[in-house]
Amino acid sequence: MAISPLYALRETSINLWRNILLTTATIITIGVSLLMFGAFFLFDYAVANATQRWEGGIEFVVWMNPEATPEQNANILDAITTSPEIRDYEFVDQDAAYEEFKDIFSDTPELVEVVTPEVMPPSYRVVPVDPNADVVEELAGQFQGRPGVKTVVSANDTIRGIQDLADRAGLFLFIGSFVLLGAATLLILTNIVSAIRNRAREIEIMKVVGATNWFIRIPFMLEGVAQAMVGALMAWGGLWGFDRYVIEEFSDPDGLELLAGFQVSDNEFFTTSVLVLGIAIVVSIVGSLVAVTRYLDA
Amino acid sequence: MIKLENVTKVYKGDSVALRDATLDIGKGEFVFLVGASGSGKSTFIRLLNREEVPEHGKIFVAGKDIAHLGAWKVPYLRRNIGYIFQDFKLLPNKTVSENVAFALEVIGKPRHVIKKQVPAILELVGLTQKMNNRPSELSGGEQQRVSIARAFVNRPLILLADEPTGNLDPQTSVGIMKLLDRINRTGTTVVMATHDRGIVDTMRRRVIELDRGLIVRDQARGVYE
Is B222 exposed, middle or buried (0-12, 13-18, 19+ CB in 10 A)? Predict the structure, then answer.
């Protein structure tokens, strides 16, 4: 027996309206928890995009002494080209280093004026096969202190710091969102139980005249789903704002170069939105099903 | 129409509500269930409506053993059984016609069927003029008529009534019994639990007397005791 959409809509609206305060509290809790959940994913995507950019680029730089002998340079080059752990490298000679220096300090011509290509250290920009921070650090360490090498630097420490910070922030968002999702599930359950108790007589009559269990259950389950959907819509709006005004601000071209890749693609935003919607549906169905099976069929 | 074979119903604490009951109720019969409080009348009715399941025995309604009916089939069984409560159980926020229509709506009857059947049943119970009133605006007798209309609107084969006149004065009770008699004459089997000696003695229909779960009397054209 099919349930009339008009009947389902009417009964669901009545249930929601009868408990308007609890309904509002439930929707807000669902919205905030889904927002945190979605923000965790967007943040994770953004960090992954940023680190992928770093990992795909220069992992460490071997700065040579400008006075290094051709033999010392050849030894370092040989070590780089024969290492199975190095995927790629780029040699930046003194002229290229000087051009880069001029670009970077174009705002301070007085500094550029006192520097000449001869004082610029040439460098090898090395891309390891394995971008893992520990592997990169160990590999970079092999060049440190070798004859002709001025210093070896890598972005690892900075990246690690950012990754650690991102991991901690992500964990906080993830745990927080789960706690709130649990609270939201309980609120949906409470709201439906309250609606079931308010309509005890109607339910009794429905059972006596032969309404099927699903016919009785559906308006209550729709109540849970409706609350979750409105909450998901709120969360989606919040995520759009989070992406537009927080994540995109990080990747501002005038901001820190290291964070230039800290952004979320349209596809990733869409995936996160679908995920948030999916979680909303799961939360509402779990809350509703527990309520109707435990309190309606008893 | 209704057949019980060695039916026993035991509640928690070994309280026996119905003990080894065996009987037949034919199509179109009018049966009074009498006995003291706690004798098993309500349990008998609840078993027929599959609100309870017996520990032993078989209960056949329209040829089907409802004691072993799958849970999902119970709603379909109940569509063939009307149920009248002592306390009417009307929905206070709905009008008379909405209360009656509710019984059809929740079993998925189309709107055009509801529009046709509700006025017809309200005419049968004599409440056409009050179809837009709410239960709070009706007398006890009128409320019970609405309850009967709701139970009968789907034209069930069986009508179960659990002390339908228990909350009504004798004069109003007579009106309700006339209505039930009229419904019975359409071929509907009526099983009514009652304490009302006057009604049973006046109507002289089949009487089944229960005492502590046992059927102690089954008498055609019987009296209260």
Answer: buried
Q: Identify residue A291 by its one-letter amino acid code.
A: A
The CA distance from A289 to the nearest CA of chain B, in Å, is: 17
Which residues does chain B have within 8 Å of residue A213's beta carbon, measured at their own beta carbons? 71-72, 75
Coil vs helix vs strand at B219: strand
Alpha-carbon distance A137 to A86, whole Å? 13
Say which amino acid occupies B175.
G
At B206 the pLDDT is 96
Give the bridge partners for B83, in sequence order: B160
Over 70: is that where the pLDDT of A158 sits? no
pLDDT at B134: 96
Give the global pTM.
Answer: 0.70
One-letter-per-residue 3-state SS of A159-206: HHHHHHHHHHHHHHHHHHHHHHHHHHHHHHHHHHHHHHHHCHHHHHHH
Q: How confident is the model at residue A157 (pLDDT cuts 50, 70, 90)?
A: low
Q: Do A211 and B150 touch (CB under 8 A)?
A: no
A298 has a chain B CB within 8 A of its CB: no
Candidates A202, A207, A209, A216, partner chain B, best to mutate (most B CBs within 10 A): A209
Q: Which among B79, B89, B91 has CB closest to A210?
A: B79
Chain A residue numbers touching B75 (CB-CB < 8 A): 207, 210-213
Spatial separation of the C-alpha atoms in residues A78 and A89, rounded to whole Å: 12
Q: What is the largest CA-CA distance in chain B?
A: 50
In 3D space, the residue among B126, B133, B115, B192 whose CA is nearest the CA of residue B158 turns out to be B192
Round to whole Å and give the CA distance between A255 and A97. 23
Instruction: Please tell me which residue of chain B has the smallest CA distance to A3.
Output: B108
A212: closest chain B residue by CA: B75
Measured CA to CA, the distance from residue A215 to residue A202 in angstroms comes to 13
Contact A197/A294 with Cβ under 8 angstroms?
Answer: no
Rg (CA), chain A: 30
Q: What is the mean pLDDT of residues A61-83?
A: 89
pLDDT tens for each residue of B124-137? 999 999 999 999 99
CA distance B99 to chain A (A): 10
Residues 6+ apart with CB under 8 A from A287: A184, A185, A186, A187, A188, A189, A192, A224
Q: Which of residues 44-83 of B touch A (CB under 8 A)?
A: 49, 71-72, 75-79, 83
Question: CB distance A215–B106 less than 8 Å?
Answer: yes
